[in-house]
Amino acid sequence: MLIYGQDLKLPIDLSTGSLNDTGFDGNKPYHVYAQEIKRNLKTTFESVERNLRKSRAYESRYTNGQFVFTKSDSSSKLEPKFDGPYMVVKCRHPVYDIKKVSSIS
Question: Source organism's superkingdom (predicted)?
């Protein structure tokens, strides 16, 4: 869908006979069909842009000296979910070197 603006045709479509369903109706003028493809590509592109913005929001980048917490591996309800605070010592995105902060003054 993303590359060609239409649904993908899979090998199973050969056996089910739905391969001839191209979406083009012979009674429809070509310019109407072209407008539909253009509209489909536009909505797909907008969807891709929206998903890209969402993924960038989740992808955090930290800098040296920034305080962070790490998610603990505990499974109990009453145990804390995060350990820390830690200070970011070295950034090599996506890997960060952190150091436990004993006390914050």
Answer: Eukaryota
